[in-house]
Design a protein that fits this description.
The chain is an alpha+beta fold and 221 residues long. The protein has helices at residues 9-14, 34-55, 63-73, 83-92, 102-114, 195-211, and strands spanning 4-7, 19-26, 117-122, 129-134, 140-142, 148-150, 155-159, 162-166, 182-189, 214-220. Strands 1-4-7-8 form a 4-stranded mixed sheet. A 4-stranded antiparallel sheet has the order 3-9-2-10. A hairpin with a 5-residue loop joins strand 5 (140-142) and strand 6. The protein starts with a strand and ends with a strand.
Length: 221
């Protein structure tokens, strides 16, 4: 069943341009797809390095707007980096990207190509009604491969059980493992341009091509 996502009015008030691109699909998560890594190394890493050269990391389109939104929400974007910026920095440093699994690898591909933060969640681990909001004072969760993350003032995805993820780092609760059968991938946009529509289109194609996604539903909130 398609998840119901809304954007909190308080967040909209502070940053009216906020939108979320949604992709929900069935999938069999595999350890690795060799083709995506060939594509990343042949085309995408070069494109990202060119963008760093042209703009400087903080001014890359969609990273720039995300950083500005973080400042407006009260979070220091240099200390709590938007995830797309963190990935782009790794590529710029010649470290490449982590190999996780087919869904997470596509998630990261969409993020570095678009400049948007992207999060993927196991739908069986989250409730049907979701809210994208600003993290509350004192709110924390255990990040993937990290200690407790202080998510106050960060853009946060939550359900009635609490926060699930953010555009900086997701929680362990709904992380994608090889046991996930249905996934919700969210593209977090703080920009007024039409890059979100484009990212949703090529994101769907990448998920089908490199992760074997089926019955993909795509929509924008």
């Amino acid at each position: 069943m398609r998840k119901n996502l809304v954007i909190d009015s308080g967040m909209k008030e502070l940053w009216p341009a906020v939108r979320v691109g949604c992709l929900q699909y069935r999938v069999k998560v595999e350890k690795k797809n060799e083709e995506i890594w060939k594509y990343l190394k042949r085309d995408i890493f070069k494109k990202v390095k060119d963008a760093i050269f042209d703009y400087g990391i903080n001014e890359i389109p969609n990273i720039r707007e995300s950083r500005a939104a973080y400042k407006t929400f009260g979070k220091d974007p240099s200390r709590y980096r938007v995830s797309s910026e963190a990935l782009v920095r790794r590529i710029g440093q010649g470290k490449g990207l982590y190999e996780v699994n087919t869904v997470v690898d596509v998630n990261n591909l969409i993020s570095v190509e678009s400049g948007f933060s992207v999060g993927s969640y196991d739908t069986s681990k989250i409730e049907d009604d979701l809210v994208f909001r600003i993290g509350r004072e004192g709110e924390t969760y255990k990040g993937i491969g990290k200690d407790e993350i202080h998510i106050d003032c960060l853009p946060v995805l939550s359900d009635e059980k609490g926060a699930i993820g953010s555009s900086t780092s997701d929680s362990e609760r709904a992380m994608i493992t090889e046991g996930a059968a249905e996934v919700l991938t969210l593209i977090y946009s703080f920009s007024e341009n039409e890059d979100l529509e484009a990212a949703l289109d090529y994101g769907k194609k990448y998920l089908e091509t490199y992760a074997g996604a089926q019955d993909v539903e795509a929509w924008i909130v």
